Amino acid sequence: MTTIYAVSSGRPPAAIAVVRISGPAACTAAETLAGRLPAPRHASLRGLRDADGALLDRALVIVFPGPRTATGEDLVEFHCHGGRAVIAAVERALSLVPGLRPAEPGEFTRRALTNGRIDLTEAEGLADLLEAETEGQRIAAINAAEGRVSQAVRGWMDDVAMLSARIEAMLDFSDEDDVASDAAAFDAIRLAVDALADRIAGVVDAPPVERLKDGIRVVIGGPPNSGKSTLLNLMGERDAAIVSSISGTTRDRIDVPVMRGGIAYVLTDTAGLIDTLDPIEAIGVTRAEQAITTADILVWLADTAPPRDDAIWVHARADLAGRDVVPEGRAIAIAQTDPASIDRLWDELHRRADALLPRSDGVALKAHQRRQCAAAIATLKETSADPLIVAEHLRRARSILAEVLGLDATGEMLDALFGRFCIGK
Question: What pTM did the predictor assign?
């Protein structure tokens, strides 16, 4: 395997830049620039020099012998000054060392995966951590990167292996006195298989990771002139929708992304629900009805009952004459002149969102992980009175769970994953 190098810190200029070298020739390359290297895992100041002996910079040098490193192979770090010219000079000197080449995006982490330092779920967690924009995304990503998903999947695989061992013992050693091989023992194994499938299903059915990134879909619905666009602008704190007293001003859905309290939301203003012969207006009404049906949370502004039992029924325009009394059944009264009323609506949305988002102390799966685990559940749930067939179901389930960890990941899959990484990670 070739030896690679790249800047693994932030984009220059910066106070400090970390240049990382990884591979079989890492120590030799580092000696070419820094001379005698310090003891492993001890930082020492060295002068970095080019092939002509000219001083490039004075940097801290740290040597990490493999395999107990981030990449699973020999790794050296230069902690240099973070100026663009300094970094360019160090990289130019490294490029002249035989056997070295610049790293591709995500190549350091890919080597960690290849060398068994992390598994696929941890690598995906790192990718998500680099892209995290909210606190919820950060927590879920770091949980995955630190192995919470991996630990859960490996635990299920261990349980499957133990059940397989019990089946194999029943098949191979049925004549031994200390091996239970009667119908009661087989029924106990099948009950244990069902219980394991139910445990996995509990995680699969929990809110997925994608909810944190895609956002909670909040749809504002109601008839024309009920204050939907005004409410959207107040909640989004910008004039995203045109507000007018003319009926039918909003003819299509308007989506406004909002970050609030560390949670991503997508607020949707919809066309007023009305019977119409106007074909364009009818399209808007149809799209509004679809949005209302698929919304995570429906905020309903009509004076008539909402179309969903779980809607937040809002008494809108409470600051207008004749609307100062809140009718029965309304969850919240809001007024354009009362910012606190908008905060109360947000509080209710946050309360609802908590039930729709992954728990910070739980295991949250990505979409493809959920599909793979669901396939393992389906395999475990296949019933049979033949121990040989049950043993095969267990073997298949363990193989499917192994796919979650990337134990048989294809090159195309890994290319797609590590293409999300920056150079140097």
Answer: 0.75
